[in-house]
Amino acid sequence: MAQEVRGVIAPGKNQPVRVETIVVPDPGPGEAVVKVQACGVCHTDLHYKQGGINDDFPFLLGHEAAGVVEAVGDGVSEVAPGDFVILNWRAVCGQCRACLRGRPQYCFATHNAKQKMTLTDGTELSPALGIGAFAEKTLVAAGQCTKVDPAVSPAVAGLLGCGVMAGIGAAINTGRVGRGDSVAVIGCGGVGDAAIAGSRLAGAARIIAVDIDDRKLQTALTMGATHTVNSRTTDPVEAIRELTGGFGADVVIEAVGRPETYEQAFYARDLAGTVVLVGVPTPEMKLELPLLDVFGRGGALKSSWYGDCLPSRDFPMLVDLHLQGRLDLAAFVTETIGLGDVEKAFERMHEGDVLRSVVVF
Ligand code: APR
Ligand code: ZN
Ligand code: ZN
């Protein structure tokens, strides 16, 4: 039987979000209902609310979540009721061209639930990133549930479902940071800090954190940065070159998503270095670079979408490393809040002292 639970809805462009009763159908074939235990507040949720993603209001927000599978539909074999899972927005299809070429991180037919969750009057909801987890329960495709060790705290585990995975993956998957590498990370919010933590995990020898906010640089040091540069007062390209013997960093990770910071990343890399863009630009932004400078260097200019992650490979591995004490994921949880506090958490995002607010149930 369909269930009624509480969830956070974005009713229309720039309107405050509110908690409403939502209807969660029983799982159909290939689907699962998950009892959500924790869900982080991500910038993408705010972008949905602002109408920056699309106009399919009302949205059921929330997508960085962990919980326990409550029920599964026909044909579901990968998870069972009682499993502790992190929700992902890359349930790969296994059949598209990208999947068949062995590059499932580029899958363009990822699975979401087929049925719709609704308001009590029948209005269909658009779940953020196909998840919608600021809700006591949510309906997803079974492939969106990735089983991990239940010893991890749900508030910590959920963060791997989006922003923290994006940052760690930008370093270890896209940037291929390796032992002894020099890395610079521009923008030390949740994503940039995760890139720093990922670089440390991968054995980077030097990790240079760049931000315009000294508080962010302090936190970056606790995540594994070996040096900091405040780019409001210091030219970051020169500083990064100076800290890398004049060469530039082997990997520069741009975690802001702006043309000027991308340009800094471009010029702060070694001649054969890699730039990874993980910050998300807005549609009107343009990049202008001398083509000769693009030609004049080797290396690679890459973008990282969701950290090029494969949830089935990366989530359990990162949870295990966390449980072994080798990756401090708990440091990303600044505060835990209730379902009714999401609007306030959006406001706090601009204050700059929160890495992640996490709704716990
Ligand atoms: N130079 C350096 N750092 C900057 C600049 C700049 N010009 N502008 C902003 N920053 C810093 C901020 O001070 C902050 O520490 O970038 C950081 C951004 O962090 P958050 O706002 O917390 O964002 P985060 O969640 O880390 O996401 C970063 O990745 O996933 C995308 O949409 C997301 O584009 C965003 C980016
Ligand atoms: Zn595919
Ligand atoms: Zn997100």
The CATH class of the largest domain is identified as Alpha Beta
Q: Give the biggest beta sheet.
A: 7 strands, mixed
**What is the end-to-end distance?**
22 Å
Globally, the shape reads globular
The H-level CATH homologous superfamily of the largest domain, spelled out, is Medium-chain alcohol dehydrogenases, catalytic domain
Quaternary state of this entry equals single chain
Question: What is the overall number of helices?
Answer: 11
Which residues sit in consecutive blocks of at least 5 with pLDDT less than 50?
Answer: none
Count of domains: 2
Computed Rg = 20 Å
The averaged pLDDT comes out at: 97
Give the beta-strand count: 18
InterPro entries: ADH-like_C, ADH-like_N, ADH_Zn_CS, ER, GroES-like_sf, MycoS_dep_FDH, NAD(P)-bd_dom_sf
Organism: Streptomyces netropsis (Streptoverticillium netropsis)
Cofactor: Zn(2+)
Keywords: Metal-binding, Oxidoreductase, Zinc
Summed up:
By secondary structure, the chain is an alpha/beta fold. 26% of the residues lie in helices and 26% in strands.
How is this structure best described in words?
This protein has 361 residues and is an alpha/beta fold. The protein has two domains: 3-161 and 328-360, Medium-chain alcohol dehydrogenases, catalytic domain (Quinone Oxidoreductase, Chain A, domain 1, Alpha-Beta Complex), CATH 3.90.180; 167-304, NAD(P)-binding Rossmann-like Domain (Rossmann fold), CATH 3.40.50.720. It is built from eleven helices and 18 strands. Strands 3, 5, 6, 9, 10, 17 and 18 form a seven-stranded mixed β-sheet that branches. It starts with a strand and ends with a strand. It binds adenosine-5-diphosphoribose and zinc ion (2 copies). One zinc ion (ZN) binds next to loops.
